[in-house]
Structures are given as structure tokens and as C-alpha cells.
Amino acid sequence: MNIGIIGAGKVGHALALAFYNENINVSGIYSKSNESALLLNRKISADFPNDLVETVKQSDVVFLSVSDNSIRSVAQEIASKVSKKFIENKVFFHLSGALTSDELSALKDLGGYLASLHPAQTFAEKEDGWKKLYNIYFGFEGCNISKEYAKTIVERFNGTMICIKKQDKTLYHAAACIISNYTVTLSYIASEILTGLGFEKEASRKVFLPLIKGTVENLENRSILDSITGPIERGDDKIIAQHIEKLESLDKDLLDIYKMLGEKTLKMVAEKRTLTKEKEMKIAKVLKGEA
Fold it and tell me: Of 108, 50, 43, 99, which is closest to residue 75 (Cα–Cα)?
């Protein structure tokens, strides 16, 4: 299997280095940035020309590791510049969590096999990002031929592939966004509160990291319901009321977030059945401002 990579950003770097580590042949690298392409070539001991057409021609499988907004236009560029005989029967993947393989439709008309393969992972830096491709989940959507190639690649990374219907990709990505992006947002909110209390900025960022790590460990080793902790799970309605009183005077938008998340947490606790119905109703009233 000869794999070409279009786009030498964080994920493109991760893919190329992971393939190199697995002795999977990288057959070409193309980037709009000559500097990025050259850097990635050096890292995998290669000397490929930074040429879109050559990258496709030399590859059996091509990954479009570009921004979501660019996938369709890059596919169209390939279709316009590369002759059909070098597209036909080749597999083209993009890596978007939100968009479907239809973004690559210009290549289907020329006989290409299309798919999206989304690594459920974050890539904040280039150097060791390739290690994050191992032991993770990959969201797949595409044709059956592409699926077989995807399976082979995911297995090499000791990963797990989940198949997603086209119509479900947006919600799948929304879920990924909630868990990944908004964990950072919640950390920012907590940090802002602590900064307002006089904490140094660096301390306000780090003080709750053990809590986050502990929560992640719980989620790794237990069910979601068994990972719930805190005042709602314990039935501490007076503590919740105190939180609400202080947040109301601090930031009403933040209070709305607190109440919304609290109501979701209460539903989980109700499913877990650790509190009496009376206590659940009491907390519900507190969260609604009725107690």
C-alpha cells in the first residue's frame, strides 16, 4: 500500500510519521507550504517533490489532510489536474469529523473510491502527534472498498473503527466538539472564577488539573453514571443553593450554564437511583430557583 498525504499540518505530520513508524510506504507529500513539506520529508527520510499531481500518481491511497473548508476545492483541483487513469480505482480519504465523503465527489466521477476517516483525537502539536493515533477510535463513512483499506490502517494503529452514516456525521462531530472543545471552555470558565478570587493565572489553570485527570481515569475504568461525583450526586442541595447565589451576583450567563449542566447531571443521578425522589425534587427546585 502506497500512501500519499496532501497537507502537512499537524494531522498530516501525525499520519506521515505514524505510517513511517509502521513501515507503511509513504509515496508522496504535498503541501501549499514548501517549508512544511520539506520538514515532513526530512522527518521520514524522504525527498519527494512538493507536487500535487505526482503525489496522487505515485499513491494507491491518498489522504486529504486539509481544513474542512478546503476539502472540496482540493478534490476538485486533483480532478482537474490529474488524469483519470491516475485517479481510477484509488482510495481517497479526508479526515473531517463533520463532513461526509461527498466532499470528494469530484473524484468519484473519475473512478476514485471515497471515504472520510476521522481520528477521535486532538493534535495540538506536530512533534509527537503521531503517537496519538494509536489505541484510539476512528469514525468511518464511505464505500465498501474504502472501508477495507480503512480497516487495515486502523488495525495497524491498534485502533477501533466505528461506522457512521452520512446523515449522522454532523451530530457525531457535535458530540466530539462538546467533549473536546468544551472541556477546555469549562476549564477557562473555572480559571476565570479563580483569577477573580486573586489566584495567579498559572495557578488558576493548574489547580483543577488533578480533578480533570481523576475524572478521565474514572471514565476509563467505570461507566459514565458511576463516574458522577459532586454535590448533586451526594444530594447536597444547600451547597448547590450557595453556588447559585454566588454565581448570580457574579455572572448570570455563567449561572445559566451551571443550572443547565446541573439539570443534566440530576437526570443522570436519577438514572443511577442514588437519591430519594424527594431529594431529587428538592434539587430540581433549587436549580430552577424555586426553593
Answer: 108
The C-alpha cell 483541483 sits at 77
Say what the pTM is.
0.89
Let me know whether 219 and 159 are in one domain. Answer: no
pLDDT number for residue 124:
77
What does the alpha-carbon distance between residue 263 and residue 194 come to, in Å, rounded to a whole number?
Answer: 24
Q: Give the CATH number for residue 55.
A: 3.40.50.720
Q: Rounded CA gap, 114 and 159, in Å?
A: 21
What is the model's pLDDT at position 123?
87
Q: State whether 157 and 182 are in the same domain.
A: no
> What number is the average pLDDT over the span 15-44?
94
Q: Give the range of the structural domain holding residue 12, as residue numbers without chain letter.
A: 3-164
**41 and 73 belong to one structural domain:** yes
How many structural domains are present in the chain? Answer: 2
Question: CA 242, 246, 249, 250 torsion: positive or negative?
Answer: negative
The lowest-confidence range among 110-114, 127-131, 254-258 is 127-131
The mean per-residue pLDDT over the stretch 256-263 comes to 97
Could you tell me if 16 and 157 lie in one domain? yes
Residue closest to 274 by CA, chosen among 234, 236, 240: 234
pLDDT range class, residue 126, cuts 50, 70, 90: confident
Last residue of a domain, one of 164, 185, 216: 164
Domain co-membership, 43 together with 65: yes
Other beta carbons within 10 angstroms of residue 24's beta carbon come to 18
Q: Residue 263 sits in a domain of what CATH number?
A: 1.10.1040.20
